[in-house]
Specification:
The chain is an alpha/beta fold. Helices cover 36% and strands 22% of the residues. It has 13 helices and 19 strands. The strands form five sheets. It has a six-stranded parallel beta sheet with strand order 2-1-3-4-5-6, sandwiched between helices. Strands 15-16-17-19-18 form a five-stranded mixed barrel. The longest helix is centred in the C-terminal third of the chain and has 26 residues. The protein is globular, with a radius of gyration of 22 Å. The two termini are 44 Å apart. The structure holds S-adenosyl-L-homocysteine, iron/sulfur cluster and FE3-S4 cluster (F3S). The site of S-adenosyl-L-homocysteine has 17 residues, from strand 13.
């Protein structure tokens, strides 16, 4: 057993878990390889929508075919799909999987791997719940920016969402541990941290910490070397003025807020258990826009939630128009077994959902195109991520407000440069480096 390959299907929290799994495997002496030759192929699953499950089973099917030819290779499955009731049994009944574990026991991997090699038998360990595991080794994807999980789990039980079942109860990490991790990152050249959690702005509440999310933001802001602090996701219900004040108090805390709306209809929001109304959200968004200079607000929308009538969808469109979000992730409702919304009546016909979905996407693209136009002619401070994924001759990076910028010029990943914006597309900006900022 010399090499491994990890396929990650989920959100940034899952990516962060995969970085930890990679770190543990490397500490065991394994090195990273590719899917076709790795001795151990690990799938870190997501279950947020049906298409995430389907994608995973497609990959698992391919791995099964590879294992039929190479019986010594090992297949491991972990993450949010694996964590759910009955999922491990379902996987094991159809696929030759060697190791299965859930979201609460990443650190069990070494023991499970050893036992699998010693006994030749499938190893499975799914824990009900646990505290966040501290001190795991980690193999970071980038040197200049890093994910830092600050809390895990969710107690909100939005009626459509699998996360409370896949990630367990809401728990926060001790601030001291978070700060130690970030100081260590900064000492190794990291400039940007993304604080992660299913609901970052309820940080500390369930764990009875005195420290709130806004306090944590300010504590991170004084870590020497850290230039940008991002965070996601914020539930609107917990977005207090203290967070607005913290963002305004430090120019290191990025003025970009991901604030999922889900629906603009108060009736649908109630059925989703989002605990705010259309008007309440509009007030909050307006307050954020008024209070934070140059703020960018992005959102998530679910189209076709059961019971969504034309009138409800019109409410969503009204909010989209009023809020003029800088970005929106749009999803078609996917019934998740075990959630409340799974059994709801008044399912919206597929053709109606598609029509609404396409309308929403086109509308939002237009808003984003107009937003991008506003940047043309300005100079933006960009943290360079490196060559663009689509064209190696072009560099890529982001503004403080999280707008993606592709540009020409000479710079290394992790440098901060000023880019003159020459063109605005709906999804990104284009420009050229105009002046170096040596820091
Ligand atoms: N904790 C975050 C969201 C995590 S999931 C929050 O509360 O905002 C990311 C997004 O996936 C959600 O905001 C929602 O828009 C979408 N989503 C979750 N469950 C879904 C489902 N069953 N069908 C369609 N979209 C879903
Ligand atoms: Fe899911 Fe709602 Fe929790 Fe977000 S807040 S993870 S949408 S249950
Ligand atoms: Fe998916 Fe789990 Fe994230 S269900 S979206 S990987 S928390």
């Amino acid at each position: 057993m010399d090499t491994f390959y990890i396929q990650t299907f989920g959100c940034q929290m899952n990516e962060n878990d995969s970085e930890k799994i990679a770190g543990m495997l490397m500490e065991l002496g394994l090195s990273e390889s590719n899917y076709t030759s790795a001795d151990l192929v690990l799938f870190n699953t997501c279950s947020i929508r049906g298409n995430a499950d389907e994608k995973f089973f497609g990959h698992l099917g391919a791995a099964k075919a590879r294992k039929a030819k190479e019986p010594d290779m090992l297949i491991a499955v972990c993450g949010c799909f694996a964590q759910q009731d009955g999922a491990a049994e379902e996987i094991m009944s159809k696929y030759p999987v060697d190791i299965i574990f859930g979201t609460h026991n990443l650190s069990s991997l070494e023991e499970l791997l050893t036992k699998r090699i010693e006994t030749g038998k499938t190893q499975r360990e799914i824990l009900e719940d646990s505290d966040i595991e501290e001190g795991l080794p980690i193999k970071r994807s980038y040197a200049h920016k890093a994910f830092v999980t600050i809390m895990n789990g969710c107690d909100n039980y939005c009626s459509y969402c699998i996360v409370p079942f896949a990630r367990g109860r809401e728990k926060s990490r001790e601030a001291a541990n978070i700060i130690t991790e970030i100081k260590d990152l900064a000492a190794n050249g990291c400039k940007e941290v993304m604080l992660l959690g299913q609901n970052v702005n309820s940080y500390g509440i369930k764990s009875n910490f005195i420290e709130r999310f806004s306090d944590l933001l300010l504590d991170v802001a004084v870590v020497k070397g850290i230039e940008r602090i991002r965070f996601m996701t914020s539930h609107p219900k917990d977005f207090g003025v203290d967070i607005i004040e913290a963002i305004n108090a430090s120019n290191k805390i990025c003025n970009s807020i991901h604030l999922p709306l889900q629906s603009g209809s108060s009736k649908i929001l109630a059925s989703m258990n989002r605990v705010y109304s259309k008007e309440w959200y509009l007030d909050l968004a307006a307050n954020i826009r008024e209070s934070i200079k140059g703020v960018s607000i992005t959102t998530d929308i679910i189209v076709g939630f059961p019971g969504e009538e034309d009138w409800d969808f019109e409410q969503t469109m009204e909010v989209m128009d009023k809020c003029k979000f800088e970005g929106a992730f749009t999803f078609i409702f996917s019934p998740r077994k075990g959630t409340k919304a799974y059994n709801l009546d008044n399912v919206v016909p597929e053709h109606v959902i598609k029509e609404r979905f396409n309308y929403l996407v086109a509308f939002q693209n237009n808003i984003m195109a107009q937003d991008s136009e506003r940047y043309v002619g300005t100079s933006q401070e960009i943290l360079v991520d490196g060559p663009s994924t689509k064209n190696m001759n072009i560099l890529s990076g982001r503004t403080m407000s999280n707008k993606l910028v592709n540009f020409t010029g000479q710079a290394q990943a992790g440098e901060t440069v000023f880019v003159k914006i020459t063109e605005g597309k709906p999804s990104h900006l284009f420009g050229h480096i105009e002046e170096r900022k040596w820091v």
